Amino acid sequence: MAENIKTEQHYYTKDFSGYRNEEDNFVANQELTVTITLNEYRKLIEIKAVKDKEEDTYRGKYFAEERKNKKLEKENIKLKNKIYELQNEEDNEECEEEYEEYKED
């Protein structure tokens, strides 16, 4: 027969003066914890530092590309406006020529 396991609710209270990370560094009863060596801890810190640096590098590249993109968008708009103006100049010249021919007839 299977044994019935009784569990009791445990309430843990701790007076926190703020939400800083070091204040939630405590172990409660029946909480799963892991023990690591100092060398393992140092390796974890090293890995995190490398990843943070990579993240900062990629973030910098992203913002550089974002600035470049905005600059190219502005240049694109200027060139489109110039094309539009040049096309309209040709149309206006054609209209003026037709008008001059019409006046002469």
From TrEMBL:
It comes from the Viruses. Residues 62-105 form a coiled coil. Keywords: Coiled coil. The keyword Coiled coil applies. This is Uncharacterized protein. It comes from Staphylococcus phage Henu2.
